[in-house]
């Protein structure tokens, strides 16, 4: 080959290589839609996974978290939890799996309706599964776990990680209640007890997503885990933990992408401003991560907007 043909060949090879990369990236992006609270819809184009899908966003109590512009009826903790099926139907059409971090209402209250509607397999604690049985979800759909399991499904696998609930109530929170039997349903808001807490390492075709439903974690349970996307619990209660950001980033091996979760005011319906949460919680978190891990990108999510991550990241 003479030198000009050689150069042409090299150029063509480079173009073909780039095209193959971009084609691959375009056919396999991962898409994460923030449903608010700790809720996500994640898909790699093949498998659709919901994480703690809480869409009803009850107008709970009468405190400062409520807006006078929200004309919905107030919900008390002693009221029966009634899902907003109209909003759920407008948002959720398909799900293969639902991963539930714990059984509090802001994680589980809409799962009975969504599991029934989609037929999705649900992975959660014994308490989560017993509540769902109470709502008529069949055992074939339920995968009761404790943490430590690593389950392979078709084109999707999930490692279940034991964790701790957020240290609510200025670190005075503890609740060891569980449902070892099927409770009578429908449940009141307050009857959605924690029932133990989990994290998940959800492995999609090209990405590993580590999910959190609380502002807490057990360091040793995360040893050796290298997610490329971390849905990091960011709210207020983590401020009472020892070096939360620093320890979380180090033990998860400084993920390329971090998206804060469970930071919004979930008493407000979709469409209401969440600016205060962004300014008070997410901007300081983003700044801190920038200092601790300059290579990590913190993406601030907006309700119901889809974040698409195209590049293929080798785990
Ligand atoms: Zn909770």
From TrEMBL:
GO terms for molecular function: hydrolase activity. Keywords: Hydrolase, Signal. Residues 36-262 form the Metallo-beta-lactamase domain. The keyword Heme does not apply. Transmembrane segments: none annotated. Residues 1-25 form the signal peptide. The keyword Signal applies. It holds the Pfam family Lactamase_B_3. This is MBL fold metallo-hydrolase.
